[in-house]
Amino acid sequence: MTISANSSPLQHSQQNVGQIMRLVLLACMPGVFVATWFFGFGILINILVSAAIAVALEAVLLKIRNRNVRLHLSDNSALVTAVLFGLALPPGSPWWLIAIGIFFAMVFAKHIYGGLGQNPFNPAMCGYVLLLLAFPLEMSNWRIPGGNVTAIEIADGINNLTSSNFLTQIQSTSVLSWGGFQQSILASFPFLASSPQQLQETVDAMSMATPLIEFKMAGHSALIAARESGLDLFARESKTGWELVNIAYLLGGMFLLYRRIISWHIPLAILSSIIILSSLFYTPAAAAVYGSPYLHLFGSATMLGAFFIATDPVSAATSNTGKLMYGVIIGCAIYSIRAWGSYPDSIALAVLFGNFCAPLLDHFLRPRMFGHGQDHPEKNESEIRG
Amino acid sequence: MRETGRQLNQEMTIWRHNPVLVQLLGLSPVLAVSTTLVNGIALGVAAASVLLLSCITVSLLKKRINYTWRFTVYLLIMASYTTALNILMQCFYLPLHQQLGIYVPLICCNIAILVHLEVHASRQRCTAAIADALKAGIGYFLGIAVLAAARELLTTGSLFHDWQLLLPSAQSTQSSTEIPQLFGFASTPAMALIMLGLLIALKNFADAKLGLGAVEGSTSVRPIERVRVTGKIGSKS
Questions:
Q1: Would you list the DSSP string of A298-331?
Q2: pTM, whole model, 2 decimals?
Q3: ipTM, 2 dp
Q4: Option in B183, B184, B194 nearest A108 (CB)
Q5: What's the CA gap between A313 and A319, in Å, rounded?
Q6: Which of A49, A92, A378, A380 has its CA 20 to 30 A from that of A15?
């Protein structure tokens, strides 16, 4: 009779990639739901269009690369990429914009490198950054729900608070009405419009930039004016919406932590470095320029980035110390680009920067294997024997 | 060294030894200039003519060039032809010269040309050197032109914008009309690198499918015997 000696770990987690990705999708859902509730159907259409294209592309690419299409398609990774990509785009983006971005994400960022597990960069963020660089106009096209006001006009609106029709215009229509649905469909598929007039009516479709983006766009003087007249940045309809969206993503992230899909290192490092940096620079003189810690945490895409995007296990650092360093790098990059860069929000650029650093972190912060690299191997050996 | 040179001489073709797609030499002007087809053609012709003239000169002077100082001499020869070309372009193609900017003078330190001089021209008779230089020059020209055509098509959806710049007259000026951009990102260096990668992939794909690639085992590399160098060596404590 022989007793086979298995090495640790003796207890295996029963999860496969498909289940993990399904849980990530599930954890996204509260955020998606809240965002749809506040900003209309544009986000859902974004996600649906990008998911359809991504899954089709994934199947074609797997076929080209002679992989088992059904097996690899069932790992849902294309779906997760598509959902994160759809959430990152301005709601109601035209279909061709989504198609170009997701094509770049799937072909260039994922399959050229060898598919899932081999991609050094987060595919969804690669697609997003390509669109950000190639189509800056379309990518900054955030709109107010139901109203005929764009983000730039908000700056004027804040300046002239006396014009009361500005606020009533915002509150007049509901984004979840049938009209809102029609408008967001037309925004995504302009060729469905029956007449040019109908298309023009949809120009100000469904959503609104995050408070952070408006903060940057509105300019400092407008913001100070708004503060003085008692306007809370989070008080207006959509601002509250973004706050709740972020809380929903935070809850989703907690669920992922609870199910041990992600570890606490990366989100904690990102959030704490953002909090520390934004508190450091939140002096009375600079408050209007850099924004409050609360704005940075809940008035932007921070929660989505910290819990869902940066924790991508393929492109992140692997060791625990490495994950902490990786999170700190991303958090500092997020804050630096927001405060001193020209892009309003910076999750994608910061995550890609972190991805660039991850192989180096893995190289230098390699965890020591048990029993290796100690000073006195002979002594230890005798201790073990004794 | 000399053996590899001879070996390369025998199988030199535009396809198999393309400086842009196979040797990947002299890429910075290729990536920077190939925004429009006109630019690509201009720089391709300029580099190819400098390559041809320096090859002829080097193969004629090969017995007189000091082996130790050969690279200095090659660079001097390339620089003199580039200077002449630069002056001629300023004379006859001033708008085009201004559009190409620093990349015309930079031909004098194009590594594709330098390598060709060292590997081929300095070991050949004049006629063979001309034939090989023509092949390499045409290869370089085609590489830039194809990349530039692809990028211009993606950027604007059309080809031969500002084609009148290629006409030798002082009046040929840049057209002031801006053409609408289809995918402006294609004119950035980042996209140039991606598209060059795609071109190389396409070439390798064609090699695999059509059997046009390098002959297997044409270059024999002797495996290097290695000594174990990792871990602690000779330290007994």
A1: HSSSHHHIIIIITT-TTTS--SHHHHHHHHHHHH
A2: 0.77
A3: 0.74
A4: B194
A5: 11
A6: A49
